[in-house]
Design a protein that fits this description.
This protein has helices spanning 2-26, 31-58, 63-91, 96-124. It is mostly helical and 125 residues long. The chain has one domain.
């Protein structure tokens, strides 16, 4: 499960990096846009790795404990993400649209990957 997860994240980040570089070149992005792309990638990556660590810690527990810790982890991760987004908007000079749009795309992709991994694991049991 770990190997599959990290491979999927690596492939996603490579595709995201290549796509970001392509968009940056095509649309002649400046420092603010490129900073938004990079920060969105870092924040989304940290979020999905935290989610996976929580899943690894709780996947073999009974269902109620898994759901309680998993949902609690989502609440904590979302709170931390909102705080980091607020700090980034307040103190950094980035293109907010590029940042939020990129973060949304990566978050959506990583959520699909996270659910796929969980479903595969649950089907094996």
């Amino acid at each position: 499960m770990q190997k599959q997860f990290y491979l999927g994240i690596a492939v996603s980040m490579i595709v995201y990096s290549a796509g970001s570089a392509g968009f940056s070149h095509i649309f002649a992005f400046g420092y603010e846009e490129n900073s938004g792309l990079i920060l969105a990638g870092i924040l989304a990556l940290l979020n999905v790795v935290a989610a996976f660590l929580i899943i690894l810690k709780t996947i073999n527990k009974d269902f109620n404990a898994f759901v309680r810790v998993f949902i609690g982890g989502i609440v904590i991760r979302m709170t931390v993400m909102l705080a980091v987004i607020f700090i980034i908007f307040k103190f950094m000079h980035i293109d907010n649209f590029v940042f939020i749009f990129s973060l949304f795309i990566l978050y959506f992709i990583f959520q699909i990957w996270e659910l796929t991994i969980i479903n595969k694991h649950l089907k094996q049991e």
